[in-house]
Design goal:
Number of strands of chain A: 14
Structural class of chain A: alpha/beta
Radius of gyration of chain A: 21 Å
Order of helices and strands of chain A: EHEHHEHEHHEEEHEEHEEHEEHEHH
Strand order of the largest sheet of chain A: 3-2-1-4-5-8-12
Number of domains of chain A: 1
CATH superfamily of chain A: NAD(P)-binding Rossmann-like Domain
Largest sheet of chain A: 7 strands, parallel
CATH class of chain A: Alpha Beta
CATH topology of chain A: Rossmann fold
Oligomer: homodimer
Mean pLDDT of chain A: 93
Distance between the termini of chain A: 49 Å
Largest interface: A-B, 65 and 66 residues
């Protein structure tokens, strides 16, 4: 794009600002945030977790807790200190609401980076009702904006690492292999073709995904106007539950969501096989999705912290995903491994029944990521976790109840169709 | 774009829904909302104004009221009824906060259209301080989303007309004549060029403009997922102050902002000439801007109400502007007409010092709009209004005090440079 901004390239070397090795993890008690916090702590970063514990509250609302018995934050951190000698701080702030406390914390801690997981992250939950739509919009947008605004007000040069989603691309609307954030196009200017690099056209598939496309515009603006150094990670669907660190003791165990709102597709299928529930395929399962194992998520976050953009650069966008699969193929894989039965449900989402998806992910590979793919034998680990804790499962919460539109039948079981 | 959504093209004929001629105007007490409400009322629409009166509160905050003495809402509406026999309703709701009251009103009134002006609309105000940034984001995004969510929950087929801004285009980043919302590009797919129509790449110039680019993503999603029929008007800078209707009595007069936050460039220059203040040119005045007279704004709104998109269509985007001018040329025009002196100030904005701007606006012209340009003699009308009420001017509020970044000098008078 034409550079219609005046960028201030002030010195951003860490020494000149008296920076330390502190990283603030917003949403550090959640499914991705918690294993990331432990991993970064083990790598030698000083970690401050900021969380409003909303995910635990939503467990109460939905009546479907994590399958794994997650310990209180206090117990988690005490055990971590006991096992590793490393202290992780916890500060209870709702960053979507309490700007001043967030600002004070940032000024006090002077972190080198802030990792931002503090958003409502389930598409079905975001479509559940008008109040869930409103909550997701209000929470996610204000959380992201408060963080950016506080960084600018602090005057500190803090790198931002944000968890986004592959879903912002709308599963390949341009028909190309999906690039990492930016698309090369040609535009006709006075009869001549001019080359432009544009942000990949957004095509959100739910209220949740929409907020992530709106986050991208916050990042665009704050990078350009204020020189904030931002990395936006377009993450695939996470599978797996534990990392080396969360395996160290049951008090450190990560959450495992199996319900129709928060459970992610592969984990759900594996868990369903354990409790003798049919595998819940939406539509005919023609959807192709991008995936990443939770062990790779935490490594990617550290790589992003280590390789931030320079002041004045555009937003750095990585596709944080290691492989793509069609949903029906995953269902068949799980059925073959476990003997579970596949059942076809009406798709509660408003989406194409079949899509192709090719994704570029060179950036993380170039930085040394060794992908943990489905073939690495970790499916069994998920099954073992599910087996161990299956008595915690509320069977009535397995089938999705959210619907994208009111004209989609409430009972998704209506269309069970054998293949 | 590839159609990756399943669009529901249900019958949207007005008769089938028992619709009436009611239009709800969100923000109907403001600078554009008020004359629009009167104009639509006179054209025979039944008008319900919804407003939280925030603009009047901000007058108090800034210590710079409208130059024209605006009457209370009650007095305005009483006088309108007296003069025309037409009743305009007023409901005091903050639509960014009170979703339920908005929903109840929509269900009760069953309007054929909602016109949405209920956003904080000044770029300098949005950049004034962290709390102004946060207010603008929170207010604008929640207001737009609450409206869309309530329309869907109501189950009614209501057309939306939203006041956007030319500023979302970032003054021509693609180098082309600016199209109406969508840009034709070619993308390389497996060695072949594929034609795509994409939303024009957003390039917001302030927090305020950013919220309008984020609004566009709300519209994209709700049009696709729920079939909401939306027209987004990318409006140029409004000049002029009165319309035929607001001229009918002083109790109906429209606001006239002259201060550094809310005053728009041409109106400010004209008013400055009246109070013997130098004309405040930012930088060297090389910025080219798009303009529209307030009398055309109100006509455009009615045209948009009369020609909504069909259910299932993409968002209809019109460039609501009639001419473009370079700021320095306007300053010289006003100086020539009035004898005022030009003074150059440090530009508080972060923008290119010079830009070209060519804008396409065929859509409104095709619908019959007869542009009211600078040549139509209405400059004098603005000067007359300014002269009549110049004693209401707080001279200390004329120079802009907002700055886009903290490294821009607080005193913008530092760089006065004669040409």
């Amino acid at each position: 794009m034409a550079n219609d901004w005046v960028i201030d390239r002030r010195d951003s070397s860490e020494e000149s600002k008296g920076m330390n090795n502190r990283v603030i993890v917003l949403g550090g008690d959640g499914f991705c945030g918690w294993p990331t916090s432990l991993y970064l702590s083990r790598q030698g970063y000083d970690i401050t977790i900021v969380d409003n514990l909303s995910r635990r509250c939503i467990d109460n609302e939905l009546g479907a807790s994590s399958l794994t018995p997650i310990a209180s934050v206090d117990r988690r951190l005490t055990k971590w200190k006991e096992l590793t000698g490393k202290k992780i701080e916890f500060v209870h702030i709702d960053v979507s609401v309490n700007y001043q406390r967030l600002l004070d914390l940032i000024k006090d801690k002077k972190p080198k980076a802030i990792v931002h997981f503090a958003e409502q992250r389930a598409a079905p939950y975001s479509m559940k009702s008008p109040s869930h739509k409103i909550y997701t919009v209000d929470n996610n947008l204000n959380a992201t904006h408060n963080m950016l605004c506080a960084i600018v007000e602090s005057g500190l040069d803090i790198a931002v690492v944000h968890l986004g989603t592959m879903g912002v691309y709308g599963y390949g609307a341009a028909g190309t292999e999906i690039p990492e954030g930016y698309l090369d196009v040609k535009v006709d200017v006075d009869g001549e073709h001019k080359d432009l690099k544009i942000m990949y056209p957004a095509s959100p598939g739910s209220i949740y995904h929409m907020t992530k496309t709106q986050d991208a515009l916050f990042f665009l603006f704050y990078a350009k106007n204020d020189g904030v150094r931002i990395t936006d990670l377009h993450q695939g669907i996470v599978w797996g539950t534990n990392t080396e660190e969360t395996c160290m003791h049951e008090d450190l165990i990560n959450r495992f969501d199996y319900d129709g709102d928060y459970g992610t597709v592969l984990n759900r299928f594996l868990m369903q096989s354990v409790v003798d529930h049919p595998i819940t395929v939406h539509g005919k399962g023609g959807q192709t999705r991008a995936f990443i194992h939770i062990r790779d998520t935490v490594r990617c976050i550290e790589l992003a912290i280590k390789h931030p953009p320079q002041k004045g650069d555009q937003v750095k966008i990585f596709n944080q995903t290691t492989e793509t699969h069609r949903v029906i193929d995953l269902a068949k894989l799980v059925a073959k491994e476990t003997g579970a039965r596949i059942r076809y449900y009406i798709n509660p989402r408003n989406e194409a029944p079949v899509n192709e998806l090719k994704v570029r992910n060179e950036s993380f590979l170039a930085l040394g990521l060794q992908p943990t793919t489905l073939e690495n034998g970790l499916l069994k680990e998920v099954i073992d976790v599910a087996k161990k804790y299956k008595d915690n499962c509320n069977l009535s919460k397995i089938v999705c109840t959210s619907r994208w539109r009111s004209d989609i039948p409430e009972d998704l079981e209506g269309s069970s169709e054998p293949e």
